[in-house]
């Protein structure tokens, strides 16, 4: 193979009545779950929709970084070339990833995403961006995983049938026949009932968490921090499979950034409401979410709750702090004079909660790229607090479990520079599958500011985990 790999991406209309989840299920049956991913945009309010719904398949290679160790999985010329470029260790994964994306010369007239990597970024990847205390590396949970796929099938990207973006070129294998995609039936997969869970265990009890919040308030009172995100995890053993959990979650909490994917032995089932950032034709967009209130299950009291959220001094203060942090993050990599805030403190509705949401934009500065934007914005201030570095140090002192992929990011990176990442929240992680006994975990945080009441912060964590917990157990969190 040559030093540069020429890739031609062709857009092909695929006449099918099958929906994305049904296509994913059939391709998983043929290829296996690690060979297929689903990113699904299901939120009914199109004003804050994601880029679209996509099923990716035809895995060419997977790169994972854990501590300083680099692993490239896959066979064939593309995987071999990536293996040679990545090496076995790295002290600068961003320089390595720039070398990787520079390997490909893409020929296409497709805008936005055409060919690139499904990417997950664990919370602890912050250690590559900031000077943080030494940490215990979890060998089974990579800090970064990037999977390169040959084919992506897009639903709703344009009017008409789904569009297949198919990569071809030297070193790329023969793709799946188009007839296979066109022949997938519309199966109308039902939403399964949830059997009684085999076990449910919280990593902390309520009183311990209230004590954590008091410790955070002490740090705020002495001026150490202004705001901090502190949380906990619930572990569940269930007979439900990840696909069944996804079907339940998508029915209960349709969100703009839903996903069902497996990388490095971990399956993510998510319904994220929050964009970390989008980089599209040089425009950086962030949509920080901060400020939460529960929805009324009957709907009768929702108008009052929304009005109280808009007027709540504590929630507004938390939101303004984190919008300011997003402005600082975007400002590090955008052209001077292009930073802007729009839709300040808009209220958006989800299955269990209302959120305050704002939009921050800026034009990418000359000499910057997608990896600079990721380093500038990660982890999201809505997952840490402010000042970001000090808040992360205190989180590391207080929380008793590593966050892993929670509070990280999930998204797509095109080798030409386009990218879109969602925060890895409202998410269930699944490892060590065994028939009839699947092990899941879901996490959430609450934002602590000077006006916080510990009990309300505990309640906020339960509200945020509500949809995922219901998907796993069929029960509401009190």
TrEMBL record:
GO terms for biological process: L-tryptophan biosynthetic process. SUPFAM superfamilies: ADC synthase (SSF56322). This is Putative p-aminobenzoate synthase. Pfam families: Anth_synt_I_N, Chorismate_bind. GO terms for molecular function: 4-amino-4-deoxychorismate synthase activity. It comes from the Bacteria. Residues 35-157 form the Anthranilate synthase component I N-terminal domain. It comes from Kitasatospora setae (strain ATCC 33774 / DSM 43861 / JCM 3304 / KCC A-0304 / NBRC 14216 / KM-6054). InterPro entries: ADC_synthase, Anth_synth_I-like, Anth_synth_I_N, Chorismate_C. The keyword Transferase applies. Residues 206-464 form the Chorismate-utilising enzyme C-terminal domain. Its EC number is 2.6.1.85. Keywords: Aminotransferase, Transferase.
